[in-house]
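Appendix C reproduces, verbatim, an entry submitted by the partner laboratory led by Prof. M.T., so that reviewers can inspect both the input and the predicted structure.
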Amino acid sequence: MSILTLNEGILLLAIHLLKDDAYGVTIMEKLQAISPKQIVFGTLYNSLAKLKEKGYVRTEMGEPTPQRGGKCKVYYSLTPEGLAALQETRELHLALWSLMPESERDRS
């Protein structure tokens, strides 16, 4: 069983939602849209590198563009292991929340 940290889960979910358009800037925008957690680009790229080391994401180089000074975008996508870890983490969270009595679930 591969249970993700909260940050890993949010990051993998953002990549999954972006589909073929997941690169640094769009990932950062998606993170800001789905989570109140603040993150800087340095932290983002470190986290992406760790997820790649764990085998949860893969990278693919895009074509160089004049707008980026001839640099290529690095696109990210989930590996089957990354998607499985995301699903396992979701299932665990749902199972944990199901343990709480229904009368207490909606308390603020």
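Residues 14 and 68 are 23 Å apart (CA to CA). Additional entries are available on request from the coordinating office.
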